[in-house]
Amino acid sequence: MPDFESQPFFQIARRLEIRGGTGWLVVLNPAGDFTTDLNELQTELQSVLQKPVRVVELEPSTFEQLREALHDPDDDAVVLSGGPGLAPEKWRSLDIMRSAMERSGPVVLWLAPTDVANLANFAPNIRSLIGSEYFIAGPDGGIMTEAERQERLKELSEHFGFTDEVAVRKAEAGELPHDPEFVEWLVLLNRGDLV
Hints:
Helix content: 40-55%
Number of strands: 6
CATH class of the largest domain: Alpha Beta
C-alpha cells in the first residue's frame, strides 16, 4: 500500500471545509469495522461541514441510481462506499460516468486499502478528480478527543490574540472574517450557526 498520510476524521473533514466544501478525496480504512468507522466518518463530516452527509453504496448501484443519488440534491456531502473489493468492472463503469458524477458538493470515496490499485488501474478519470487527496483514517477511530479540541482552541486563541468569547462576540457582530481558521474556531466552539 502506498504511504498515504494518516489523519483523524476531523482533519479530513477540515480539509474539505477549507476547500469550500467541494471536491473529491479518498479515505482508506486500514482496519477495524468498516461500517462503524463509516458511521463515525459521516458524523464528523456533518459536524465540521455543517451540511447533510449521505452514504451511497457503490454496489449494487446502477449508473442511473448513482447519478440520481449524486444530484438529488447535489450540494450536500456524499460518501461513496466501495466496501472491500470493488470489482474492476465497477471501477471501469464509474470511470466512464465521471462527468455525470461531478457535483457542487464534496465526494468522499470510502475504500479499503486494497481498492487503491483498482482505482488507479481502472478509473484514471476519477483518479484525476482526486489528485493527491488520499488519507488513511487515523488509528484512534478518527474522532477528535476533548483534549485535542481544547488544545486546538488554545492554539487559535494564542495565534489570533483574543479569547474564545471574543471570537464568538465578533462573529455575532459580523466582524469575524470567514477565513478557514475562524470557521474552524467557531465549529470547535459548537457555534457553527455563526459561520
